[in-house]
């Protein structure tokens, strides 16, 4: 039955009982939409695009994941935007299925696990582990980002162990999280990449050296460069080129940081840039790069994905927004 508060300043919400406990009705509706079958959603989108083909102006009616961030409370309105509500309205479960947003969601979950795992409510805990399960399904289906998910599950297991005796929520819920993580780790360990069959189509090793060099120049993570160089001798030779590691150095580090390890009296072509890069990574860490990030609109205080946008109330002025890194988003919710 719905619950209605008696206080006129905070009238409360309608609640529904689900298999995971009591949840707010308006958030439950959003979660139901998220859990729809992907094929069903794709079919609806095709039908919608066919129907709106003659009038493109109606495309603004498509749901855009966003959440209105309420910064403070007043006597008349005692409401705050919670992190669990933000996860639902921003469609974090669907975001981890997008290769452009996977690393962003992965970094955000890592911050929450390492910093505030024992202080988060049961609703936030359940949402985090639901996202981890969706990440696992995505990795097993696409065979991409296995190493990133493996590191994330290690962080989750360590956080559960460290906060076992001081956390919010029941012991049964904590044991359920531990069992879920162990199950996901077992599935990931048993997973093996499927080798591509000979189909006569062009592979990466069939490309000219200049094309392979351009591809390696676009990679921002040295682990990807090293792992790609292990595939064959031609790519390995290109991955060891000094110019490639020089570009990585200048992309991730400032001139002041590089000068600490640069040997004096040597020209640029005489420097071992791969050695300089590894020294700088150990000292300063590498720059995090995301294909898509969240942003905060300065007009309507909405948090949204930059690649999707949001229905802003102020349509006359030019859009003004502040990009949010995972660290900035966590600070926004005091995490």
UniProtKB/TrEMBL annotation:
Pfam families: F-box-like. The keyword Nucleus applies. SUPFAM superfamilies: F-box domain (SSF81383). The keyword rRNA-binding does not apply. GO terms for cellular component: cytoplasm; nucleus; SCF ubiquitin ligase complex. Residues 201-248 form the F-box domain. It is found in: Nucleus. It comes from the Eukaryota. Keywords: Nucleus, Ubl conjugation pathway. InterPro entries: F-box-like_dom_sf, F-box_dom, FBX25/32. This is F-box domain-containing protein. It comes from Potamilus streckersoni.
């Amino acid at each position: 039955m719905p619950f209605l508060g008696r206080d006129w300043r905070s009238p409360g919400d309608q609640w529904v009982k689900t298999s995971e406990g009591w949840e707010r009705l308006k958030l439950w509706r959003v979660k139901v939409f998220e859990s729809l079958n992907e094929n069903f959603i794709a079919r609806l989108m095709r039908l919608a695009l066919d129907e709106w083909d003659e009038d493109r102006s109606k495309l603004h009616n498509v749901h855009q994941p966003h959440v209105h961030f309420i910064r403070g409370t007043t006597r008349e309105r005692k409401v705050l935007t919670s992190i669990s509500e933000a996860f639902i309205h921003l469609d974090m479960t669907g975001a981890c299925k997008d290769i452009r947003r996977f690393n962003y969601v992965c970094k955000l979950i890592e911050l929450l696990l390492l910093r505030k795992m024992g202080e988060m409510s049961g609703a936030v805990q359940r949402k985090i582990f639901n996202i981890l399960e969706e990440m696992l399904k995505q990795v097993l289906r696409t065979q991409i980002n296995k190493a990133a998910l493996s590191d994330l599950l290690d962080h989750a297991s360590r956080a559960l162990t460290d906060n076992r005796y001081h956390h919010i929520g029941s012991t049964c819920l904590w044991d359920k999280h531990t069992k879920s993580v162990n199950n996901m780790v077992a599935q990931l360990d048993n997973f093996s990449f499927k080798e591509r069959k000979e189909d006569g189509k062009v592979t990466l090793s069939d490309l000219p050296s200049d094309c392979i060099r351009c591809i390696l120049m676009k990679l921002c993570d040295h682990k990807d460069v090293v792992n790609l160089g292990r595939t064959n001798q031609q790519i390995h030779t290109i991955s060891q080129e000094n110019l490639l590691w020089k570009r990585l150095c200048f992309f991730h580090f400032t001139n002041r940081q590089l000068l600490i390890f640069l040997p004096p009296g040597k020209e640029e072509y005489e420097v071992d840039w791969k050695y300089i890069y590894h020294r700088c990574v150990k000292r300063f860490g590498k720059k995090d790069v995301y294909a898509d990030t969240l942003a905060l609109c300065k007009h309507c205080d909405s948090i949204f994905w930059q690649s999707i946008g949001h229905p802003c109330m102020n349509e006359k002025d030019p859009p003004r927004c502040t990009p949010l890194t995972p660290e900035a988003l966590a600070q926004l919710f005091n995490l």
